[in-house]
Amino acid sequence: MSHSLNEIEAMSKRAARGAGLSWGLAEEAAKGTRWLSAFGFPGTDLLADLLEMNDRIPPIDVSPVSLRAPVWHAPARRMSPLIAGASLSDCAMRLMERGTIAMENICFPLLAVPFMGGAAQRLGHPVAAEWAGARLATDGRQLCVQGDTTVLRARMADQMVFTAPARMTGRREPVLRADVSAESWQRLSTFAHRTFAPATDDSRLRGAGAGLSDND
Amino acid sequence: MTDVPARDPDLVMRLARLGSIHQSRLSFMRILTRRMARDGWRFEQTAFEIDASGEGHAVYTAHTPERAYSLVAFAHDLPPEKRSDRVIADAWDATFTLFDGIPTPEDIARLAQNIPLQEAGRVTGSELSVSRANRSVRLWEHVVTALAAGQQPDAAQIDAVGYLMRTTAVYGSGKLGAADREMIADRPEFRVPFQAEMLSVYLTRWFVTDLVQHMADSRAARLGKTAATLAPELARSMGIGNSTGLGMAPFLLNHPVLFNNWIAARETALSRVRGLDQASPGDIALFRDLFDRAAQLVNGWHSEHPVQVDKLQALRDDIDQLRGYLERTDLSAPGPWDTLYRWAEETLSLEGQEWIASLMLEPYGTLVDELAGTMSADNTATFRIAGAMSISDLRNLLDRVYRWAIDTDWSAPGNKARAWYVSEEKLEPRLGERFEEPIEEYEQPLAPGRDAALLHAALKHWPDEAQVAEFILRHPEHRHVLRRVQIVGRAPYAEIRDNTISDRVLPIDMLRCKLAFFGATKFDPRSDRWVRICMYGNAPLPSELAPETADFWVYPTLPEVQA
Predict the structure, then answer these.
(1) Could you report the predicted ipTM of this complex, rounded to two decimals?
(2) Where exactly are the structural domains of chain A?
(3) Among partner residues B245, B246, B384, which is closest to A121 by beta-carbon distance?
(4) Contact yes or no for A30/A67 (Cβ under 8 A)
(5) Taking phi first (over 0 means left), then psi (-120 to 50 degrees means alpha), and beta for anything else, what does residue B431 get?
(6) Taking CB atoms and an 8 Å limit, are A1 and B470 in contact across chains?
(7) Which of A134, A150, B32, B434 is deepest in the core (most CB within 10 A)?
């Protein structure tokens, strides 16, 4: 079904929060899923896969141990692309100074790609990511896809390398609608539902503050 | 021009003051009516297929120089027991969508399957808004009865309510599958926020006027009579009501950059006008005329809510004091507006201060109207966290912006008595009692003061030279508020500098502020979290819209007095 990007962002934020991520990381997950969807990637499917894999686990286990390490890695030997990606965006200046940041054992690597768009906008230069023969580069607004696109749906990349400044050879424009699979929407809804308080008569009346007649 | 600095965010961004803001020439309805008149928009009713029981549909199209937009309205025969303004309602007197272009019969058939269902329906990228409205039962029946009997309705009864229907939600920007704002934001007519929603309400008012006439005609025909035609001055005096609950309150917190840009535009306008060295005789005459008309608008503003009753009394006293000031003051003296503003700040209640702050902008369209172009926001750039910021810079920023929050005792139950949450019924935002209801685990991040204080405490043992990126990797729970803090560092009016979860918080303050930027008048709280307002009251009807009528319509014209 065709969805607006705002719907995708709102659903993704609630779902990520429902899976135990902090509000700040849930916002990152939502912006990232929106960005992927706008470029025609199955962002909601990938997010649902990741949330199911990491449901309510302590984030520290799947976070980079150190941002100064030559290669970022997580204690659990599988790194969350949302947490690593958010850190990559936070470290945009460091990426520019170092030229590359490498990560190992990163889950659903495509989910980390939107964050380099954020970094690219901050730097004013394109950023590229490479893993398993695929290369994606973006300036934050347009996208360039090269190499083996079958690995874009990979569940794990042994190594993923981000580079800045990078070159963009082709330019794909985002679209402002997205087709979302009903199945992924349902999976995200299950997570999102955990963030809603069950309705009670009391909350119906007090929580919204109405209760007066509207027939006047 | 003298340089008068914009007002301090610590003064402006308090809930009591935000909850006292009045509409101004930078309000979204007035920006729209000026544009429609300036660009010569053309309006036509292209369908009105509604039966004698009030069931059917109608289409109203606005033609801009480049495009067309159509309000598709569905009228329903609603049993009274189904009539509720709450978001959890599932049927309404009328439902609407603003269609991008001119709908085909296939579009109408598709919309007829979805728009009457509101949240339970789906729309597409061709729809720019989805909304619904309920009748004011009292006034509706009075107007239909009077017209059907061949008489005009009573002006006093119309004034007492102000509208025939009130909207209970106007959804835009991607809701229910509609077009995202990004799809239309580069069109000149939609660059200013909420213009599509304001257009839909303007056309809704026209439809409601036609519908009430149609119902009166039908009733008269059943009696073998001919109904009177509603007098244009009575039609013009009626706006569209709006009934709004908590759903709107989180908006200002969830869109900090946008909120900053609204407030900054109004504050910049105020500082420009206060900075004028001289007022021309024409400007002074216009201001004095509008002063009386604006006072008239306040006279017609009623509420039974104790908080608003007190505020209204204070505002009426303020207007008396202002009248005395204006009688004894020569506005052609140097720096008249700054002198007036400073007197007001020392003398008047918050209602009066904000009332006169909005009013003194009125003669200066050429000076302030272009600020409308600064009121939208693209959040892409500000969303990213600047991870290279040092902990010491972050601490300084917190000390500067959130001092009030750091100094608040958050262990005192009264300071965090409430929690914002979302109920599973239609995802309605609600405000609950943290210590009395099982809601804390569902709490939404709508308490930036408390969260900033927690962040400040968590930073205590971190060295000054460490970077924010290192801290936030260890403490993802602070990522949300850290982003806010950095935004407020660049956008000083982005944050409500007040406690949004205390036992004294009045959510209607947030609703009032947002609705004032829309251009609403006659705020009438029904509780501390629920408000009714009026939109487009006194606005020219589409056939009357012209540059001469498009600017000051919000202020009623005074009746001629016999000498």
Answers:
(1) 0.96
(2) 2-191
(3) B384
(4) no
(5) beta
(6) no
(7) B32
